[in-house]
Amino acid sequence: MNPYNYLYVSAILFTIGAVGVVVRRNAIVVFMCVELMLNAANLSFVTFSRINGTLDGQVVAFFTMVVAACEVVVGLAIIVTIYRSRRSASIDDASLLKR
Amino acid sequence: MLTIQTPEAVMFWFLAPLSVVAALGMLLVKKAVHSALLLAWVMITLAIFYIAQDALFLGIVQIVVYTGAVMMLFLFILMLVGVDASDSLTETIPGLRPIAITAALGFGGLLVSLIGRAKLGHDAYGLTAANSEGNVQGLAQLLFSTYVWPFEVVSSLLITAALGAMVLAHHQRAVPRATQREQAIARFRGASLGSAAGLPNPGVFARHNAVDVPALLPDGSAAPNSISATLKARGDMLDSAQFELGEVDNTVTEEK
Questions:
Q1: How far is residue B79's CA from residue B69's CA, in Å, rounded to a whole number?
Q2: B58: DSSP letter
Q3: Which NCBIfam families match (chain A) (predicted)?
Q4: Is B100 within 8 Å of A22 when comparing Cβ atoms?
Q5: How many CB pairs under 8 A join A and B?
Q6: Which residues from chain A sit within 8 angstroms of residue B97, using beta carbons?
Q7: What pLDDT is attached to residue B248?
Q8: Which helix (H) or strand (E) holds B132?
Q9: What is the ipTM of this complex?
Q10: Please, which residues bridge with residue B256 across strands?
Q11: Which of A18, A42, B162, B183 is least crowded, fewest Cβ atoms below 10 Å from its Cβ?
Q12: Distance between CA B14 and CA A49 in Å, rounded?
């Protein structure tokens, strides 16, 4: 086995996350799929760090985790705010601009 | 030169399919809570991958921050927003799903074939040299020398995000909250005095735990407003007649 196999897993997980963002309609599930994409990218960083023999990739993955944590905090606050005014967590219901 | 030992290969071929299946399950299951649990599993497998790839610190952080904090936050919000929040799997935009799947197959195939064809120009080095002083020490050395500026920027980002969440979650009342005195006055000025002393309690029956059974009014009819509105909405209201005694035994025998 060679370490590139981790990259394949990472690519597959990223693709699945992207499909989830497009296909699912519940805002929270969409958000979880974004998290899946971020995690898949992290796996690539860690694998490349190992392939290249330096720790820089791990530092970048660490920063990604921090940014993802920020994103979760703000994103979930937005979802809760929308839910409070519209009583729905479906992304189809937040379409006021269209009408 | 990096050689991958057999245990890691076994671990990889065991966990990688499981994580991909769990990620696919995330898309296919109907309930958001199940999606969250599957995502937690994917994150745990990723943590194991990190640890197997000599990224001990990141593996632990992955478990603590992601499966610990982030997934808890997700589950918390799910409970707040309502587990039964409408999440149908029906297509709302016609033709979206086939297009999405085709695009995903194309994109995934492109990525995989790219990785398959790419040549790095050198063999994989492995992290034995970089981790010679320990993984955490190596990371700390980089974090506080080369990456000290991004580190500070990220810290300000964290503070901003916390403030932003507080601003978003802050709820300003449009009208001031009614005081107890105003509530009491409103109750007595209401349409009927029936609820002035408070609503009746649910019925108390010897043969049933009675929160879902209406109380009986003095004339023997049931009082539906003695049941909590939540139970009523769920349809969990029972008929109180079945818990009444059929006939009252009036023959009291005097003892002695």
A1: 15
A2: H
A3: PRK05715.1-2
A4: yes
A5: 231
A6: 23
A7: 58
A8: none
A9: 0.93
A10: none
A11: B183
A12: 23
